[in-house]
Write a structure and sequence with these properties.
Blueprint (H helix, E strand, L loop, with lengths): L1 E6 L2 E4 L4 E9 L6 E7 L6 E6 L6 E3 L7 E6 L4 E6 L8 E8 L7 H4 L7 E2 L3 E6 L1
Length: about 130
C-alpha cells in the first residue's frame, strides 16, 4: 500500500505561483509513476500532469503546458507540481495519484484517472481574478 498526502494549496491571485507537494509513504516511492489531477466544482476530474517512474518522462494537459512543471525527489519520497502564471480556471481541488508497479505505459494510459491505484485527499487551489 502507499499513502499520499498533498499540501501547498491556497488562495492566490491570477498570475501568481504555487508549488504543490505530494508526500508518499508505504511502498518504495521510486517504483511507481505519479500524477496530478484536478476537479473543479461541477466538473469531472481531469488530468493535469504525470511523471513516470523509470524514465522520468512527463506528460501534461494542453491547458497547463508551459505553465506547470511536475518533478519528483525520490530521496524525499515527494512529487511536486510547480504552477506558474495561474489563471482563475485553474481553480480546483488538486489530487495526487500513484500508479504502482514497474511496467511502463503510453501517455494515453497515464491521462486516465482509472489507471491509478492510490489517491491523496486533495488540496484546494483557488485563483482569484
Amino acid at each position: 500500500q502507499v499513502q499520499l498526502v498533498e499540501s501547498g494549496g491556497g488562495l492566490v491571485q491570477a498570475g501568481d505561483s504555487l508549488r504543490l507537494s505530494c508526500a508518499a509513504s508505504g511502498r518504495a516511492f521510486s517504483n511507481y509513476a505519479t500524477g496530478w489531477f484536478r476537479q473543479a466544482p461541477g466538473k469531472e476530474r481531469e488530468f493535469v500532469a504525470t511523471i513516470k517512474r523509470s524514465s522520468g518522462s512527463t506528460y501534461y494537459h494542453d491547458s497547463v503546458k508551459g505553465r506547470f512543471t511536475i518533478s519528483r525527489d525520490n530521496a524525499k519520497n515527494t512529487v511536486y507540481l510547480q504552477m506558474n502564471s495561474l489563471k482563475p480556471e485553474d481553480t480546483a481541488v488538486y489530487y495526487c495519484a500513484a500508479k504502482l508497479g514497474v511496467a511502463s505505459y503510453s501517455e494515453a494510459f497515464y491521462i486516465r484517472d482509472r489507471s491509478y491505484d492510490a489517491w491523496g485527499q486533495g488540496t484546494q487551489v483557488t485563483v482569484s481574478s
